[in-house]
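haha ok so turns out i had the wrong file open the whole time. this is the CORRECT one, sorry everyone. sequence first:
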Amino acid sequence: MNSQHDESALLAFVRREEDGRNKICIYGTPGGLRKLASELVKQSEANQDHLADYDTDHTHYRATHQNAILAPSSDEVVLGRLDLRNGELATWARERIDNQRLPPAAGMSFPEVLSDLQSRPGLFLRKVTYDSVASCIQGFDLGTGFEFLKGFSEWLRLRATHGHNMGWPVLVLYIAFPESKTPWRNLEAPESDQHAIATLFQCLRDFCSER
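then structure:
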């Protein structure tokens, strides 16, 4: 694909601008752009019925893949859907589309890796449960020298009705299930477990925006 005579060359890369912003560039020969168009159509027609409620159909394109459509010097490209299998936009998609729902500039930005964890937890975890997600976030906090979650427990205690002597994973459960004195028992139901995960990420985002 690196030959100037190749009729199906497609080059994708990220360029850092002087103002610090990233610019995503995709250039191709007519043949390469037609291949990209074919992939776009295939993605738009993908059947998502087999996916989990929180996931969307997506494909990773790397220049090292067999039969890769990208030129060797290309960056990795992820092409995917914004809608869930029920037709609604995924939470992460709505937040990125609607600027009014992003954390205020004065607050601490929400880490991109945790946005990815929220939108595609199955890529990070073998089994997606509240406990596994909370453990993953604790590992991220460890990697930041315990700076990311500094003050998070105190922030939660102001909002939880019970469990003020508990750690933040339990405090989040008291917020998710305010009527329960033993909220961790709710995690036995899959839908409640997913509700707890959603509450955790909402708390983290609110914490970041107010910090």
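The chain has two domains: 10-80, 91-210.
again sry for the mixup
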